[in-house]
Amino acid sequence: MPGQLDAIEEYLQLRDLVIRLDERFQNVEKLLRDTINTNKEEINNIKNVELITIKNVQNSRKCLEHDEKLKSLERIVYGSVVVMVSMLGFILTKMFVLPSP
Question: Distance from first CA to last CA of the chain, Å, rounded?
C-alpha cells in the first residue's frame, strides 16, 4: 500500500505540473498570437505610410512641374507687358512730343 500511495501522490503532482504547464503554454500561445496580430497591424501601418509618402512625392513633382509652367508664363506675361509699355511709350511720344505738321 505505501508504494501505491507514493505512486498516486507522484501521479497527482505530475498531473498538477502538466496542468500548470498547459496553462503556461496557453498563455505563451496567446502572447504569440497577440504579437503576430500587432506585427500585422504595424506592417499595414508601414504600407500605408509608404503609400502616403509615394503620393506626397508624386504631388511634389506635380507642384514642381506647375511651378515651372507658372515661371514660364510669368516670363511670357512680363515680356508682353514690356512690349505693350514700349508700344504705349512710342504712341504717346508720337502723339505729344512729335506732333505732325
Answer: 149
Render pLDDT for 74-96 as a digit per residue (tens, 0 to 9).
999 999 999 999 999 988 888 77
Three-class HEC string of 52-93: HHHHHHHHHHHHHHHHHHHHHHHHHHHHHHHHHHHHHHHHHH
Longest dimension (CA), the chain: 149
What are 39-73's pLDDT values in tens digits? 999 999 999 999 999 999 999 999 999 999 999 99
Q: Looking up cell 504547464, which residue turns up? A: 21
* For the chain, domain boundaries: 1-101
Angle at 33 between CA 28 and CA 37, to 5 degrees: 145
Can you give the C-alpha Rg of the chain in angstroms? Answer: 43
